[in-house]
Amino acid sequence: MDNNDRKGQQNQLQLELPQEVAQGEYANFAIITHSSSDFVIDFARVLPGVPKAQVKSRVILAPEHAKRLLGALQENIMRYEREFGQIQIPNKESRTISPFNVGKGEA
Question: Which listed residue, of 11, 38, 83, 97, carries a Cα 20 to 30 Å from 51's Cα?
Fold first, then answer.
């Protein structure tokens, strides 16, 4: 093993995925807010006929990390579309991230 291989292994981040997190939470609605120091993304699940959506997860990011997330998401969407075809959004004028066009969640 040469010196570059050892450096790569030492700099490699290991992630632990606890069992209770591994299953994930399904979300089909997101609301994004921000202040001068943070971006807050609330992920919720909206169900047809149910007037109230419960936030399932909240992620708080520094502005720099929010921009990195945006770039990583854009890159992954481009990869996905190359492999599986273009993702269709029914109403492109809407900025609401909801499958049922409910609420005013802004992206």
Answer: 38
